[in-house]
Prior knowledge:
By secondary structure, the chain is an alpha+beta fold. The protein contains 20 helices and 31 strands.
Amino acid sequence: MKKLMPVLIFFILLPLQAQEKKIPKGHENTSKFRQMYDLLPTPNRYRSANGAPGPDYYQNYANYDMNIQLIDDSKQPVLRGEETIEYINNSPDVLPYLWIQLDQNRRAPDSFTEQITPDGDNVMLRPGRFVSEFTNQGYQGGFHIESVTDADGRALPHTINYTMMRVDLRTPLRPGEKTKIKIKWWYNINNFKQDWARSGYEDFPDGEKEYIIAQFYPRMAVYDDVEGWQTNQFIGTGEFALPFGEFTVNITAPADFVIDGTGHLLNRMAVLTPEQWRRWLKATKTYDRPVIVVTEADVKRKIQNPEREQTKTWRFHAKKVRDFAFAASRRFIYDAMAVNIGGETKMAISMYPPEGNPLWEKYSTRVVTHTLKSYSDILFDYPYHKAISVNAFRQGMEYPMICWNFGRPGPDGKYNERTKNGMIGVIIHEVGHNWFPMVVNSDERQWMWMDEGLNTFVQLLTEQRWQKGFPSRGFPKDIVPFMMGDQSKMQPIMVNADNMFNRSMTAYSKPAAGLYILREVILGHKLFDHALKTYANRWKFKHPTPADFFRTMEDASGTDLDWFWRGWFFTTGVNDIGIKKVSRFYVTDRPTTRIKNMAKRYGIKVKDLPKFVSLVSEDSPDFRPEMKQKQDILSQTPALKHYLETHFGPDELKNIKAPKYFYQVVFEKNGELVMPIVLRVTYDDGTQKTYKYPAEIWRFNDKEVKKLLVSDKKIVKFEIDPDQLTADVNTDNNVWPRDKKVNRFNQLKKQLK
Length: 753
């Protein structure tokens, strides 16, 4: 019985061991290079798989006829308006009601935005804002809708939901039909210096005001194949989704005001003085410098003797625009110059108070001109007849053909480089918005990066054309501190604008840096420039989505970029590629351990194998010190010598040379992003060479890859991403041999803490 015990124990344990055997668990495709079918909408007849508008693509239009009255009251200015909206339904759907945006309700007393904004104990308010917030003299904002009627004057039922208004139609609007509604409204104009708004008025010590007026009228929301009605509330950050249309706008204001805005000014000769009209005509033919149409002397005379009772009406008309905005003041200096864009004359214009000089007179209109030329070259010719830059206190905001920009010298007229460059940068950026999103009309309420990020990238290129080395934002190296920040307060680029922790980086700088990487490292200038131009031209005067952009860039460049979009736009991963090890290799034709093992595996004698030439490192068991002594690898390696002598003639042999140095570089990837490897080597004679390995090098091993480098010269230094083009967050592991004195990575982490 005792002899049987081990056998019994064996058979008893055997099934237990089988039960304990681990069955491998399967998983989905986790490759960084998998296609983005899980993230992008399925192509359809509205939007094609190549990123272009589909055969059934449609968009609705809204035409406006408005009469506006600007009441320049010293205590509380008011804007009154009557508008007729003609809405054209090109969709395949029947629309029983229309949605209209009421952006001024953002400043209504019962503002939803204020209710959802947490309050803290570190509140700093300007005196005027404090009075407005906490006393009975507070500012009373928001639209006052006096009437909503149909074309025949009959009242239409309407419901206001904060910044959106639903207008119920008497008869549902069928595909291909159009309808007209009339709205009468007014609101108190806000002091934008107090509430940091995008529009309103700025008050000056002399009692005069400068008005920058936008989001001032009830505006149609977008209805499209993606969202249906875009009814996201305007709570402050996400900007605007608007349909294209035609605008006829009459603005009545004090007679001595200077006004300009979106569209053609139809009665310019009537509203200017005869001398100002002559100056304007001169400006339309002057291409080398701005002509001052309304001078600083004109402004000072008007301030001393203002015309507060008399009025003038300025008449504007615009086609193929999505919005309308204007600026008005008796304090405006006005200059202009002609610009040749594609053989057509466009006008670059600036409007600024005396406080803007001498900075604005010297630079603004010239910067507008440069922007129109640069963006037209990069994307498509500027389609409108003018572009206006308006100086306003700490502003940076864009509308079709007009924008407000910050930047003023001190009271003594002096300014430093930072002030000058800040003004130049914001003018380029805001004028550039005429392309994104005023013409390439993306949904700003949803995807902020599609206008801000794309525009910041083209702004960077334009600034570098203005002045090489200009302090542009959007370079990959400049977003490293952000990408190394607190992940709990970080979101992917593909996030709704109103929910961003850091919109400056997430919507502006990171998308721009990503496009810079695409152009400089992944695609190259030729492919990238063609693809971006293709996207801009495909979608000008239309409503693109992120998928349309991603697909067009791949289609027009002929490159699969799903790995890049997935990592850079849909995650908060970082790039960290380093050099783990560099080994010197030597040539041998003697059987190595690997060859011997291969022979053993197949039952073949080593001597019966064909001759192999192998590379071995100094730490290999097959290394022999005499390998270092070889000066001529071809003649001193018997197997190579025999091959050459039997395959090439004497004359051919003279021209055959072998490299003297062999290096294996082991790259490690510690970050989650995949990225191309840019490797620069420095030779012992001081010369350098750059190798570029596409991102696909990581497709089978996401942590470590090896590359062999051969050279006639000795390499003394290996460096990854020497020009900091890939937003590598840890440059300490980028150099071999290691610089032990440098520890920028840990220094940066300490700074971030």
